[in-house]
Amino acid sequence: MIKLDRVTKVYPGGTEAVREASFEVEKGEICVLLGPSGCGKTTTMKMINLLIHITAGKIYIDGVDNTKIDEDELRRNIGYAIQDIGLFPHMTVRQNIETVPVLKGWTKAERAKRVETLLELVGMGSGEFIDKYPSELSGGQRQRVGVARALGADPPILLMDEPFGAIDPITRARLQDEFLKIQREIKKTVVFVTHDIHEAIKMGDKIALMNEGELVQYDTPANLLYRPKNGFVEKFVGADRALKGLQLIRVKEFMWGFPPTVKTDETAQAARQRMKREGINQMVVVGEGRKFLGWVEWADLEKGKMVSEIMKPSSDVATVDTVLNEALSIMLSTRLNNLAIVNEDNRLEGMLSFDAIRKALSETAQRGESE
Amino acid sequence: MIEAWQFVIRNPEQMVEWTLEHLWVTFIACSIAVILGVPLGIYITDKGKEQIADAVLYLAEITMTIPSLAIFGFLMFILAAIGLPSIGFTPAVIALIIYAQLPILRNTYVAIRQVDPAMIEAGKGMGMSERQLLFRVKLPLSVPVIMAGLRTAIVMTIAIATIAAVIGFGGLGQAIWWGIRGARMDLIIAGGVSVAILGLLTDIFLSRVQRWVTPKGLKEM
Amino acid sequence: MRRQVVLVSLIALCIGLTVWVTSMDRVGIMFPFTWEGMAKHAQRHLQLVFVAEIIAIAIGVPLGVLVTRPGFKKLAIPIIGGASAGQSVPSMAIVAIMVPLIGLGFRPAMVALIIWGVLPILRNSYAAINDINPAIIEAARGMGMTRGQIVRKIELPLALPVIMTGIRVSTVVLVGSATLAALVAGGGLGEIILVGVFVGEPLIILQGGAPAAAMAITMGFILERIERWMTPRGLRVKAEIS
Question: On chain A, which terminus has fewer CB atoms closer than 10 Å, C or N?
Answer without folding.
Answer: C
